[in-house]
């Protein structure tokens, strides 16, 4: 999970660097294209079948993930890196909120405590950190966390019908590549230069390694420990922001981040034994 946290933090930093030239749609396209080529090579080498009896669920998960990823990348481009990633990492809290309704269960009392703590943290983080121009990016960052929660709910449902992870990843990256390509047609397109390749390849490589490491961590490790370590991404992103962009958050903003992390960990514990995890590369 520490490898995954480092990978996601690097991905966020490269998105911020790439955003100086490329639009959010272009960055989603290049990140998704790299993942699509990697998973296609794996499927082709193993001669695995892409046909599925639950195509609607696969498409639904892919579309939700694509929209969430686009909003997340936009937030990274327009907000301090730590702030954008923290807003996206509200996903465990929202997942814990929606899970009982999907499973037709009564929410646990502990969940309401986590929800209150999380909402206080989000309110504190939004108010002092953003000026009026940042509200769109802040709102999209928070919505990306909600979208990630719904995306993982879809993944859980696909797992219950024995859909393999590689097939879910394939359709997600396929729809994201196509969707981002269409997005670029109505937005903007910047010609690639040789100096852009390290950034874009690093973006795709770091996201892919992080996704693989996170999947491995949740499969083999204790869910609570792994989920707690996932928030190391926020710390690493904060360090990157300070070192490369001289981003300095106020004490109130740091307190808000701590509250959001606390609420996420409480919500993860509340939903045990079902695994709950934050999703970045959606």
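Q: What amino acid sequence fits the structure above?
A:
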């Amino acid at each position: 999970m520490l490898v995954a946290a480092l990978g996601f933090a690097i991905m966020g930093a490269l998105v911020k660097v790439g955003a100086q030239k490329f639009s959010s749609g272009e960055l989603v396209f290049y990140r998704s294209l790299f993942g699509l080529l990697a998973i296609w090579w794996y499927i082709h080498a193993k001669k695995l079948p892409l046909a599925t009896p639950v195509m609607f669920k696969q498409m639904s998960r892919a579309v939700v993930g694509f929209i969430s990823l686009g909003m997340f990348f936009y937030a990274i481009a327009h907000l301090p890196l730590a702030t954008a990633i923290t807003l996206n990492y509200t996903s465990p809290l929202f997942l814990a909120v929606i899970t009982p309704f999907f499973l037709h269960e009564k929410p646990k009392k502990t969940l309401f405590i986590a929800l209150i703590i999380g909402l206080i943290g989000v309110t504190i983080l939004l108010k002092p950190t953003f000026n009026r121009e940042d509200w769109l990016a802040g709102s999209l960052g928070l919505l990306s966390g909600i979208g990630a929660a719904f995306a993982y709910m879809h993944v859980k449902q696909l797992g219950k019908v024995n859909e393999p992870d590689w097939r879910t990843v394939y359709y997600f990256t396929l729809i994201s590549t196509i969707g981002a390509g269409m997005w670029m047609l109505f937005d903007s397109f910047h010609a690639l230069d040789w100096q852009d390749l390290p950034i874009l390849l690093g973006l795709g490589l770091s996201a892919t390694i992080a996704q693989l490491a996170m999947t491995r961590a949740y499969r083999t490790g204790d869910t609570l420990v792994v989920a707690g370590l996932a928030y190391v991404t926020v710390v690493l992103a904060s360090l990157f922001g300070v070192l490369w962009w001289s981003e300095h958050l106020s004490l109130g903003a740091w307190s808000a981040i701590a509250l959001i992390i606390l609420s996420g960990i409480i919500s993860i514990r509340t939903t045990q034994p079902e695994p709950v995890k934050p999703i970045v590369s959606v």
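Q: And what stands out in the fold?
A: Residues 135-160 form the longest helix (26 residues).
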